[in-house]
Amino acid sequence: MKSQVDLSNYPLWTALVTPFDEQGNVDFDTLKALVIEQQSASNGLLILGSTGEGLALAQSEQRAIVEYVCALSPSVPIMVAVGGFNLAEQLEWLAFCESLPVDAYLLGSPLYAKPGLVGQTQWFDALLGATERPCMIYNVPGRSGVAISPQVLENLKHHNTLWAVKEASGDIATFEAFRTAAPHVAIYSGDDALMPYFAQAGAAGLVSVAANAWPEQTAEFVRRSLAGTFPNLFAPWTEAINSLFAVANPIPVKVLMHEQGKLATPNLRPPLTHLELSCSQALNNANESILSWN
After folding, report:
1. Over 60: is that where the pLDDT of 15 sits?
2. Residue 72 placed within a domain
3. Is 131 left (phi over 0), alpha (psi -120 to 50) or beta?
4. Choosing a second label site near 179 at 20 to 30 A (CA), which of 52, 151, 157, 266?
5. Which GO terms of the cellular component aspect does the record hold (predicted)?
6. Using CA atoms, how far apart are residues 53 and 270, in angstroms rounded to an integer?
7. What is the pLDDT of residue 162?
8. 290 in a domain, yes or no?
9. CA–CA separation, 5 vs 154, rounded Å?
């Protein structure tokens, strides 16, 4: 069944963290609180993305998280990440999610293998053809190891399920090339700090890490970016967002959310660890700055 939600009403999607307890298990009570907080800010929910450490979770945990969030029946849409290496497994994952009230999917490029134009096209063609729900393709060469070619979008634009692209290469030229290849496809910034810049180039919105820590403030940041009438949006946001990427995401944002009292622990799944961040002063400074921003 197609999503009944108008996704264009949600310019901000929060790439939700996965909270863990002291034993390293998924903390469902805290997950519920995070969902409610994002719902209050009217932010779309992206679960099990890289910020949610989806690939570090067992399949049973992934299923439990999706079922749990769907059972909460949030008033904002739910997008679920689809990514990995094994296409058959991803098709099985899609089939599972199709049985739940999921509104959209984030389709990542295959990891590690570095497929070319033909391989990328075949991968996304199979996934887009396995659902009638809107799909956002994720270009993040820094994590997947391969950049999605604009020609891939050209090859896939016949799919009605191709709704959007999350562009996280940080390259405005790539953004423009995607727009040219598939002008009907919405493009979302995958870099918080670049949102004002990408908005000027026609971005539809942002898929955000920062919104975990600052849901209402980030929503306003996106609104102002898209309005294009607010000067100096890069400050203080650039410095604050840089603090969230001082080491691998989502380490800093989890440390900050723990200090904010939103997470019971800053725990992550190996190989990531909060011990990677030796000092949280920059995060605390950023928190004070953003919470006082208007």
Report:
1. yes
2. yes
3. beta
4. 52
5. cytosol
6. 10
7. 97
8. no
9. 26
Provide the number of structural domains found in the chain.
Answer: 1
CATH code for the domain of 143: 3.20.20.70
Place of tokens 């840089």: 242
Structure confidence by residue, pLDDT tens digits, 234-292: 888 999 999 999 999 999 999 999 999 999 999 999 999 999 998 999 999 999 999 99
Instruction: For the beta carbon of residue 31, count every other beta carbon within 10 angstroms.
Output: 21
Is pTM beyond 0.85? Reply is yes
* 51 annotated as ligand-binding: yes
Boundaries of domain holding 118: 7-228
Asked if 177 and 169 touch (Cβ cutoff 8 Å), the reply is no
CA distances to 3, 55, 102, 135 from 69, in Å: 16, 18, 10, 19
pLDDT at 111: 85
- Residue 284 inside a domain? The answer is no
229 is known to lie in a ligand binding site: no
CA distance 169 to 145: 11
Name the residues annotated as catalytic. 138, 166
